Amino acid sequence: MQRHGHRMLVYLSLLVAQGVVISIFERMLPSPFVFAPGAKLGLANIVTLLALFTLTPRQSFQVVSLRLLVTLLVGGTFSMFFYSLVGSYLSFGAMLLVKQLGPKRVSVIGLSILGGMLFNVGQLSVAAWFARSWTLFNYLPWLSLGGCLAGLAVGVLGYYLLENNHTLQYYQQVSQQETWF
Q1: Model pTM?
Q2: What is the residue-wise DSSP string for 119-174?
Q3: Residue 40's closest CA among 96, 119, 127?
Q4: What tens digit of pLDDT does each residue of 67-77 get?
Q5: To the nearest 10°, the Cα dihedral for 181, 152, 64, 43?
């Protein structure tokens, strides 16, 4: 049992580290969305998606939280952290709830698209709160399109990894045997 605990700790740490590295790398890339300057693909959200399918909800929440915190400490700003925090927790919570519908009703790709859209809603809500203006939500259709496209890209990658990576399949089986929280 102790060996399994160490193995799980290493796996959690690797997910957090990968998410941080991907976040930092993605900041160096130009925005792929012409219609939404500054928007990114959200490639680090692949880590959230993998955590949702290979860990318990509590462990996945820990991965998301640690990834946000370490990214802030390594090279983020407080405002960027606040935008990411609200967007990440909103999308994580929604994906966790919708995932409970089961694999016959919702796919990895569908969850990822939902997460991408709600991440943008969370960030836009923070921006509207800071600006004290709800007119920023006029930008929501464009951000929703970007969230769908980014969620699709991350979802396809996540699906591929979950189906073809034996280590992820192992942790997926282990998480299904453990309790919900």
Answers
A1: 0.86
A2: HHHHHHHHHHHHHT-GGGGGGHHHHHHHHHHHHHHHHHHHHHHHHH-HHHHHHHHH
A3: 119
A4: 999 988 987 77
A5: 150
